[in-house]
Amino acid sequence: MADTSQFDASASMLGYLYQVRFGLYMAWKKLPEVDDPERYHVSIEKLDDISFEQDGTATELLQTKYHCTPGNLTNRSPDIWKTIRVWVESYQAGTIELGNALLTLITTQNIPEGTIACYLGTGLTRDTAAALEIMEEISSETNQTNAKGYTAFQDLSSPQKQALLDSVYIVGQSDDFQQISTRLRRYGRQSVPSECVEAFVNRIEGIWFTKCVELLSQTPTGVITLSSLEELIDEIRPEYTHTNLPAEFSDALPDVIDLDSDLRTFIQQLRLFTPPKGMLEQAITNYFRAFEQRTKWSSDGLLQPGELGRYDRKIQEQWQEHQGFIELMADITTEEGKRKYAAQLYQQCIQHGVIPIRQDFNESYVAKGSYHLLSDKLTIGWHPDYLECLDTANDEGVA
Description:
Elements: H1 10-30, E1 40-44, E2 50-54, E3 57-65, H2 78-92, E4 102-107, H3 116-119, H4 128-138, H5 147-154, H6 158-167, E5 168-171, H7 177-188, H8 197-216, E6 224-225, H9 226-236, H10 265-271, H11 277-299, H12 307-329, H13 335-352, H14 365-376, H15 386-396
Parallel strand pairs: 3-4, 4-5
Antiparallel strand pairs: 1-2, 1-6, 2-3
Organism: Amphritea pacifica
Pfam family, one: CTD7
Domain ABC-three component systems C-terminal: 266-389
């Protein structure tokens, strides 16, 4: 039985993902090469797979052909002739001017000697006249798969064919997914410390993919200025330093907040002083954000050994300090007094006990959520008798 279905779209999906990642690589590569990034636009699936424009004029069109298995780019390869058709139609539509736009086919396939792709390459074997001769002969053949490409090429005049091929470059054995990631990390290394490079590049790439999806959903397809990529890099670069960390969950929300069935310990701790619904919901949100952020920092390798443990001890010390001051003034001889004590202690910690995990990290959700993480472990508590109260509640099966 075949391993894949006739409807399997994984190869096409990989092609699109490769296209978007390669677009980021090319855009990042071009940043130091242009005088004014604001004048340069990059687009995905607009004029071509990837295209660059300066002041609204196409300067470079790229077709990317990703293949999961190795092979050769032959003279009758659909990759070549479909690409030729796209470029001819762009020329006929006035989108590009032959001689003023660089047209590049990038493929992971091998390029045999003496072929069209070889003669349209970038090395010493480049010979557009030889490529033209072969293409003239092949495009007169009958081939159902390549018919539109053959017809498009034959529709050009001889000078137009030569002008087209003078602008065409075919690059074979292109980098695969991992190799492009390696190249992207080289650029990232110029911006952040070595231990932060992978997380930094992954974040840039994640935002880039999201932006490309947004642009593809627009009509007509939108563009990204090179300056916006430069601004993105400059904006998040300060988060990847020895004195800071990325804040990636400041706006994140839990999928569901169900107060009636939430039996987690930190929620039971809060219920000991009967807080309003909004306070409970905010506590759940901060818990979620802090948990996710701390997990992400750890998985990305951005934390120093023992850093979270040291931070939690600082949070606990803040709790102890506020607890001591409140005990001086609070009356905890009655249940009402104990509830007020708990509410005051919680308020002091959440409002005045927010300490950053690193000097330049100024988002409060990690500190607020970390109080709840410690509360969930019963390391800290709000009610003066929280250990006894929760032990009794659990014995009685009370949420």
